[in-house]
Design brief:
Elements (H helix, E strand, L loop, with lengths): L16 E10 L2 E11 L4 E5 L6 H8 L7 E6 L2 E2 L7 H5 L2 E4 L11 H11 L5 H14 L15 H14 L4 E5 L7 H16 L4 E4 L3 H7 L2 E6 L2 E6 L1 H4 L6 H10 L1
């Protein structure tokens, strides 16, 4: 039996995420004012920028949690803004890890990793468990399969959340400040797992305040402010040698 990875359209090549002219407003508040960006297969793109600049809203438009007012968002070949798109299939291309850990508190770690595989991808229990254990091993938590989320540290819970997303075998992983809610001593383990994923060639779009991570891991950094991408390029440019005044001001506050 071949498992459905939701990856069917990716074979066509081209970028995994392509956003063109994206606008999003909440009532009178214009939050995204024309975003153009792409993430190529295997690329790690980090989004940095001040609080309120629209970073989470941008990720939420990619993950179909928000509906754009204008523009197009294409993920893994699925045009999310096309009314005829199969949105459930499109969603399977996307793994998301949020700031909060969002595990199902009443399910064991293993069940957290198998439930969507079984319900959404219709994998049988044995196959789902095999894939779950493989991914728990990858994030260094093989021995925690039988634990309940509350028995784990925040950093371990976040690694479980990453393993859960990976178990769906998405074409792209989205991270929204995955380490912001963690005690400082736990941040390194989570960033380590993300770094390993990047090394393995996972396509990743990461909102982060971890400049060291962005500098070392990102292929491309986007600096967002006020609902636009102010500056983008390799970290050696955007973080180490920014051209724009707004980028310099932001970096002087966070570095
Ligand atoms: P960031 O992640 O960069 O901090 P957000 O995308 O969360 O920024 O928010 C950008 C702006 O949009 C903020 O002013 C925020 O208050 C507003 N906003 C976000 N979500 C909503 C919503 N569902 N309804 C109204 N305003 C929102
Ligand atoms: Mg945010």
């Amino acid at each position: 039996m071949s498992a459905d990875t939701g990856d069917a359209q990716a074979a066509s090549g081209g970028p995994i995420v392509e956003i063109t002219g994206l606008h999003k407003a909440f009532g009178m508040l214009e939050v995204l004012k024309g975003i153009d960006m792409r993430v190529e297969r295997g690329e790690v793109v980090c989004i940095i920028g001040p609080s309120g600049s629209g970073k989470s809203t941008l990720l939420r438009c990619v993950n179909v949690l928000e509906e754009p007012n204008a523009g197009s968002v294409v993920v893994n070949g699925y045009e999310l803004t096309d009314p005829d798109v199969d949105i459930d299939r499109a969603r399977r291309s996307i793994g998301m890890v949020f700031q909060g850990f969002n595990l199902f508190g009443h399910l064991s770690v293993l069940d957290n990793l198998t439930v969507a595989q079984r319900k959404v991808l219709k994998r049988d229990a044995t196959e789902a468990e095999r894939i779950a254990r493989e991914n728990l091993d990858k994030v260094g938590l093989a021995e925690k399969a039988g634990s309940m989320p509350e028995q784990l540290s925040g950093g371990q819970q976040q690694r479980v959340a990453i393993a859960r997303a990976l178990s769906m075998q998405p074409a792209v992983m989205l991270f929204d400040e995955p380490t912001s809610a963690l005690d400082p001593e736990l941040v390194g383990d989570v960033l380590g797992v993300m770094r390993q994923l990047a090394d393995e060639g996972m396509t990743m779009l990461v909102v982060t305040h971890e400049m060291q991570f962005a500098r070392e891991v990102a292929d491309k950094v986007l600096f967002m402010d006020g609902g636009v991408i102010v500056e983008s390029g390799p970290p050696s440019k955007v973080i180490a040698d920014p051209a724009e005044e707004r980028t310099k001001t932001f970096l002087s506050r966070v570095l």
